[in-house]
Specification:
alpha/beta, five-stranded parallel β-sheet, 4 helices
Length: 114
């Protein structure tokens, strides 16, 4: 079989106005996330697939994010197989934070990557 490489981008290259699709779980999201990101945990992805496809149709390319890039790679692969323009964010939220990109958290404490 011939597999094409998974489209990916480093965290520093994600446009500020991009559609970031965060597939982490609720506790990870609450600790820290990209402001304005669409949060659809991988565990509920299939059930909310229509919501994802609508957002991608409205905004174009989806930049898929998790903590380090494993779950988001699976979701990116699935979206690409369905014909959507999706790219995996290499290194996930850890790389995002490491690149000094802004994050917000739920509550009063500073955002961090769980």
């Amino acid at each position: 079989m011939n597999f094409s490489p998974l489209p990916s981008v480093d965290a520093a290259s994600v446009p500020a106005d991009a559609l970031v699709l965060d597939v982490r779980e609720d506790d990870e999201w609450a600790a820290g996330h990209v402001e304005g990101a669409l949060h659809v945990p991988m565990s509920g992805f299939v059930a909310r697939f229509g919501e994802v496809t609508e957002a991608v149709a409205d905004r174009g390319r989806a930049y898929v994010m998790c903590r380090v890039g494993g779950r988001s790679a699976q979701v990116t692969q699935y979206l690409v197989q369905q014909g959507f323009d999706a790219v995996n964010i290499d290194g996930g939220m850890l790389a995002w934070d490491g690149a000094g990109r802004p994050m917000v958290g739920d509550g009063d404490s500073p955002a961090f990557v769980l």
